[in-house]
Specification:
Distance between the termini: 68 Å
Helix content: over 70%
Shape: elongated
Radius of gyration: 20 Å
Largest sheet: none
Strand content: under 5%
């Protein structure tokens, strides 16, 4: 059996990253990936059984890291509001996790952009909605924090969190689609988060 060469595999992964970023998963071609990697169309299948397996190899690690960090933020927000009922000084772990999330966006901006905006037709095509749902749950924790909230105010809050979550996720997607420099990605995401954080803190004080 042919020994798989690490340098060839790296070329395949690099070519696949470019192809998925330019074409999206659905329109990507294993033949084009093979050509850019400098291997034959047949030889690429010695490394990956098909496009989905290659996509998984590239995107799954980022998906797992990204979702784990977002869920960690959700868990910490739940803990803080359960124990203290508010945002202020007890959010250090959230801040630290959020910083790690931004670092991941900086270091894996292409992979995250593909995951959130170009994965239609793959196993990760619902990742953007998953992220939106988790963020909506975080916002809901803040905006409907009092037990027994019901009626029109609760209904309005539920609609608001859905809109807010979709807006912030779309903002991250737009940033990744239009910004390449790491510092600019960090700045843009921090500015986006600051706007929403200020509004949520104000809501939490009411």
């Amino acid at each position: 059996m042919q020994t798989l060469k690490e340098d060839v595999n790296r070329r395949i992964l690099s070519a696949a990253l470019n192809e998925f970023e330019q074409q999206g998963y659905a329109q990507s071609s294993m033949r084009r990936i093979a050509a850019e990697a400098g291997v034959t169309a047949g030889n690429i299948y010695r490394y990956y059984k098909g496009k989905e397996e290659l996509f998984q190899a590239l995107i799954r690690p980022t998906y797992l890291q990204f979702m784990d960090l977002v869920r960690l933020i959700q868990t910490e927000v739940d803990r803080v509001f359960a124990s203290a009922g508010g945002f202020p000084e007890q959010m250090e772990l959230v801040d630290d996790t959020f910083d790690r999330l931004i670092t991941l966006l900086e270091e894996s901006s292409k992979e995250t952009k593909i995951l959130l905006t170009l994965s239609q037709g793959s196993a990760f095509e619902h990742a953007k909605q998953e992220l939106t749902d988790i963020i909506a749950q975080i916002f809901k924790r803040v905006m409907t924090r009092r037990e027994g909230d019901s009626g029109p105010s609760a209904t309005n809050a539920a609609a608001a969190v859905t809109i807010l979550a979709a807006t912030i996720v779309e903002g991250v997607c737009i940033t990744l689609q239009n910004v390449e420099e790491r510092e600019q990605i960090r700045y843009s995401v921090l500015e986006l988060a600051a706007v929403f954080s200020a509004g949520l803190k104000d809501k939490a004080k009411r």
